[in-house]
């Protein structure tokens, strides 16, 4: 049995947890032992959080795709690995067995090799949610190329930044994509990005819409031409446990997005262990994670975790609201989905619809529900639990981050306690603590503090690509010898965690992370803008909305025209997902005498709570606060 580490009872959880704290190395060794290694590791763990330097399973040799695919061929060769459901329900779905996925991945890997990709090269993937995206990711892993998936909603400019930071040699993309009722010319966005990306030598284009696209001679090739005569076998490259598996860009509180680096061995062990335990995965399950592969949830819980477990994973091209608000539930019934994992923002969007959009589907197949990406408010939790889960499905609220690689704090479905809006207890192997602002650990319960992790786990971030110092500064320098998550959390009287949200300048919009500085930088690119300050504010559907205070050079007659202009600039620089929800044109910003913007005040105004703005006497120009208050949107 390749998941004999699955915990079945609360007592087993307690024992496993205790063991993982008493002897973390022995704990993770016993899990790592269940995988296929070309060569076992020499040293389980070597670490320090000062540099930081984290090495798991050193000397171990493996290829993650041998664990995702090859090792299942004997027993699960004909089992469904991927079910692909298109955007349009009238288009036919496609199913792939493990054998078929194996062959497709090998073919794709051979196409990459044929086009010059070698072990260690970075390959950027900018593709819609089509099966080839899954094959492309695994194909990179198969030949030891480092994949960097860029969510296909990012703009050309955001894509170019990521490509250049990674020094990517190749881009994998498609002609276009479907998103609800819209079709988007993906290749055109790639072409625009590549005007600024000298490292890229080749572009491989997968046909999705059958559109005629511009193909640059000597650079661009069609996947369907390249795949014609390649073999369905491709030997897996032997990787060191600490070799890079992928880079995934995410936003921090300062500067441009950073490339979070994950490595082969530890990530693999974490991905399967957490998938199997949190969802209590069983062999016959039909599992559906609605995340896009462009985000970490899609990496770990749409692809790697389920495939490592030999599960059937559903990949959905569309959106929850197209062609109607019942689309998710229709898909659940259509394939008999048993485990369903989505984001609170989707739940809140669907809650706003007609209840019959849910009630008209049976949803009988469902056994476990999951939530990820942002705090789930109690109302959404209850709606999801009652109307989707019919009060019989455990609902796991899973807290984790791009940097953690896998789930850190969550209920284990039906095994450990659940509580609305609480991520609850840490998984075995994870040692969270709450600290005060001076870094001292808070040991009692019924408290609130900054959430840190005090011991390494295999799936954790190793570095930020090309800039190790940035990783140290972002995660390991705030509190000595601790990994700092950037989140604030509460611990209730029973020791259950509730994540409150970011305590840094990161905002979480519909489960997507943005640095306020990153959005400000985009806004400031607009020719009319002198300066801006961005804060998050509570938003009914998105969790947090983006509120921008902007100082402009010249204010035209029509402010709405100016606002539209500014939005356009953000869309161009980052993408539609980062569009400000509110833009208030102001004549000044509340700044201290040393020139620092007092965001605390702006946050309060954006939240509509101006009763107590605290001490404003240290401001350079206290009057500006009244003006901003009066003009608040
Ligand atoms: O603030 C936390 C929030 O999302 C952040 C991580 O974002 P990202 O790296 O994009 O990964 C999202 C998917 C794992 C965290 O710092 N977050 C994530 N899950 C939860 C959450 N906040 C509350 N509850 C959660 N379950």
TrEMBL record:
Domain AMP-dependent synthetase/ligase: 70-456
GO molecular function: acetate-CoA ligase activity; AMP binding; ATP binding
InterPro entries named in the record: Ac_CoA_lig, ACAS_N, AMP-bd_C, AMP-bd_C_sf, AMP-binding_CS, AMP-dep_synth/lig_dom, ANL_N_sf
Keyword Acetylation among UniProt keywords: yes
Domain Acetyl-coenzyme A synthetase N-terminal: 13-68
Record keywords, A-Z: Acetylation, ATP-binding, Ligase, Nucleotide-binding
Top-level class of the enzyme under EC nomenclature: ligase
Pfam families: ACAS_N, AMP-binding, AMP-binding_C
Family: Belongs to the ATP-dependent AMP-binding enzyme family.
Protein name per Swiss-Prot or TrEMBL: Acetate--CoA ligase
Protein species of origin: Pontibacter arcticus
Lineage per the UniProt record: Bacteria, Pseudomonadati, Bacteroidota, Cytophagia, Cytophagales
């Amino acid at each position: 049995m390749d998941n004999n580490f699955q915990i079945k009872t609360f007592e087993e959880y307690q024992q496993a947890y205790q063991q993982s704290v008493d002897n973390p190395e022995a704990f993770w060794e016993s899990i790592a032992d269940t995988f296929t290694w070309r060569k076992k590791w020499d040293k389980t763990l070597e670490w320090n959080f000062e540099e930081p330097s984290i090495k798991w399973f050193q000397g171990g040799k493996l290829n993650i795709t041998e664990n995702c695919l090859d090792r299942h061929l004997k027993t699960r060769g004909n089992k469904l690995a991927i079910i692909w459901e298109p955007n349009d329900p009238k288009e036919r779905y496609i199913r792939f067995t493990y054998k078929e996925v194996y062959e497709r991945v090998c073919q794709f890997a051979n196409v990459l090799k044929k086009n010059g990709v070698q072990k260690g090269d970075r390959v950027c993937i900018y593709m819609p949610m089509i099966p080839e995206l899954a094959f492309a990711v695994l194909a990179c892993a198969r030949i030891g190329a480092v994949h960097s998936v860029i969510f296909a909603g990012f703009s050309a400019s955001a894509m170019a930044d990521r490509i250049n930071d990674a020094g990517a040699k190749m881009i994998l993309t498609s002609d276009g994509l479907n998103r609800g009722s819209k079709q988007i010319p993906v290749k055109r966005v790639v072409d625009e990005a590549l005007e600024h990306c000298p490292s890229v030598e080749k572009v491989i284009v997968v046909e999705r819409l059958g559109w005629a696209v511009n193909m640059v001679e000597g650079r661009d090739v069609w996947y369907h031409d390249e795949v014609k005569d390649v073999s369905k076998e491709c030997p897996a490259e032997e990787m060191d446990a600490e070799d890079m598996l992928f880079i995934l860009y995410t936003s921090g509180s300062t500067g441009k997005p950073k490339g979070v680096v994950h490595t082969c061995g530890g990530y693999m062990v974490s991905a399967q262990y957490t998938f199997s335990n949190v969802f209590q995965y069983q062999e016959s399950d039909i599992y559906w994670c609605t995340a896009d592969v462009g985000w970490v949830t899609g990496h770990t819980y749409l692809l790697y975790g389920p495939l490592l477990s030999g599960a059937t994973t559903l990949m959905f091209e569309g959106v929850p609201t197209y062609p109607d608000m019942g689309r998710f539930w229709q898909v659940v019934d259509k394939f008999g989905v048993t485990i369903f994992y989505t984001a609170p923002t989707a739940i809140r969007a669907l809650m706003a619809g007609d209840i019959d959009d849910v009630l008209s589907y049976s949803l009988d197949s469902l056994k476990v529900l999951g939530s990820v990406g942002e705090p789930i408010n109690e109302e959404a939790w209850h709606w999801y639990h009652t109307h989707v889960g019919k009060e019989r499905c455990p609902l796991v609220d899973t807290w984790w981050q791009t940097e953690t690689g896998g789930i850190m704090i969550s209920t284990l479905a039906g095994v450990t306690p659940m509580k609305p809006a609480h991520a609850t207890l840490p998984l075995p192997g994870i040692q969270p603590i709450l600290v005060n602002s001076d870094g001292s650990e808070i040991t009692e319960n019924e408290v609130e503090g900054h959430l840190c992790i005090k011991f390494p786990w295999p799936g954790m971030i190793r570095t930020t690509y090309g800039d190790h110092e940035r990783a140290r500064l972002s995660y390991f320098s705030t509190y000595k010898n601790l990994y700092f998550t950037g989140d604030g959390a509460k611990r209730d009287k029973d020791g259950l965690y509730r994540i409150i949200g970011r305590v840094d300048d990161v905002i979480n919009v519909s489960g997507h992370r943005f640095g306020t500085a990153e959005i400000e930088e985009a806004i400031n690119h607009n020719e009319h803008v002198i300066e801006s300050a961005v804060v998050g504010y509570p938003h009914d559907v998105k969790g947090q909305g983006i509120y921008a205070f902007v100082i402009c050079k010249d204010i035209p007659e029509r402010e709405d025209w100016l606002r539209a202009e500014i939005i356009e600039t953000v869309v161009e620089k980052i993408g539609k997902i980062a569009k400000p929800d509110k833009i208030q044109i102001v004549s000044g910003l509340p700044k201290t005498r040393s020139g620092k913007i007092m965001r605390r005040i702006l946050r309060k105004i954006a939240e509509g709570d101006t009763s107590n703005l605290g001490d404003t006497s240290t401001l350079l120009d206290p009057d500006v606060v009244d003006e901003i208050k009066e003009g608040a949107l």
